[in-house]
Amino acid sequence: GNSVTQMEGPVTLSEEAFLTINCTYTATGYPSLFWYVQYPGEGLQLLLKATKADDKGSNKGFEATYRKETTSFHLEKGSVQVSDSAVYFCALRGGGATNKLIFGTGTLLAVQP
Amino acid sequence: GAVVSQHPSWVICKSGTSVKIECRSLDFQATTMFWYRQFPKQSLMLMATSNEGSKATYEQGVEKDKFLINHASLTLSTLTVTSAHPEDSSFYICSAGLAGINGYTFGSGTRLTVV
């Protein structure tokens, strides 16, 4: 079945450091891929998405490219801020009639000033 | 943009009582709503999928008689935790969207504590 594997955290960075959070997936067909962010005590917010191979999703300085050859969707940001501290979830939605989101385990990012 | 309102944001109840959590789509009609459960420092576990006007589809291992889901209209789904026990304490999150659309909007979650 479909699954998402995400690097374990926590990831602790200094402000302005470069961020990479790895995400790989297993899926049949052509899934759509997402990154969600969860701030403490809140629900999830869609950060970015990509719906087909080689698409690049971007938002708020974050980017992720849908790599079908490596089944990956790594999240990157060139210069993190303290306000980026949150839990980041990689997710996929299967192709075809399946409309469920499958989540990775989440990665806690802590950015220190 | 699409907004999903979840209420209450937190609730404390006694063992044996039932608790209802509401999930509303405020500015769109949601044909599909999902209910998730999140344990501390863990990912979201999909509990069930509800489609307006039909019975919810529960994931394996989720007790449908304990977690009652009603999706009677295109803007409201409810999750009722019946005869709650301390092990039901968790963070419950709903999401809503239109069937076929890639992304879904999430509610802000409900922190349930059963004492």
Please describe the topology of this protein.
The complex is a heterodimer of chains A (113) and B (115).
Chain A: E1 3-6, E2 11-14, E3 19-21, E4 23-26, E5 32-38, E6 44-50, E7 56-59, E8 62-65, E9 75-77, E10 86-93, E11 101-103, E12 107-112
Chain B: E1 4-7, E2 10-13, E3 19-25, E4 32-38, E5 44-51, E6 57-58, E7 67-73, E8 76-81, E9 90-97, E10 105-106, E11 110-114
Jot down its keywords.
heterodimer, A: 113 residues, mainly beta, 6-stranded mixed β-sheet, 4-stranded antiparallel β-sheet, B: 115 residues, 7-stranded mixed β-sheet, 0% helix
Descriptive report:
Chain A is built from no helices and 12 strands. Chain A is mainly β and 113 residues long. In chain A, a hairpin with a 5-residue loop joins strand 5 (32-38) and strand 6 (44-50). The termini of chain A are far apart. In chain B, 0% of the residues lie in helices and 52% in strands. In chain B, the strands form 2 sheets. In chain B, strands 2, 4, 5, 6, 9, 10 and 11 form a 7-stranded mixed β-sheet that branches. In chain B, a hairpin with a 7-residue loop joins strand 9 (90-97) and strand 10. The radius of gyration of chain B is 13 Å and the shape is globular. The mean pLDDT of chain B is 89. The A-B interface holds A 32, 34, 36, 41-46, 49, 51, 89, 93, 99-106, 108 and B 4, 6, 32, 34, 41-44, 46, 49, 93, 95, 99-100, 102-109, 111.
